[in-house]
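Supplementary Text 2. Reproducibility record for the structural model of the 114-residue chain.

All settings were left at their defaults, and a single model was retained for analysis rather than an ensemble. We include the record here because the model underlies the residue-level annotations in Supplementary Table 4.
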Amino acid sequence: VQLQASGGGLVQAGGSLRLACAVTGTIFSRDVMGWYRQGPGKERGVVATITISGKTNYVQAVKCRFAISRDNAKNMVYLQMNSLKPEDTAVYYCNMRRAAKDYWGQGTLVTVSS
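Retained model, structure tokens:
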């Protein structure tokens, strides 16, 4: 399985970005897809996850601003980020969790200027 993230960039506070993750390989029904981020001087942490049935979970800091979605037919996962804040600045990673194993994409940098 390979994951390829894209869509990062520089945006002003209050702006929006949409990240995309292309998954090469088979996605099984129990695989959970997600987005994680690692800000400057911080540890990597979960942002949002989504199951194949569409059940989502978000970290409190992004609730009502970010939306994770997936297109199972295209093997794509998206993260729509609205009302971006400088504290959202981070490298964002696409993730697949299969049983006890994590697969990671290469990361895409999001920079939010104040």
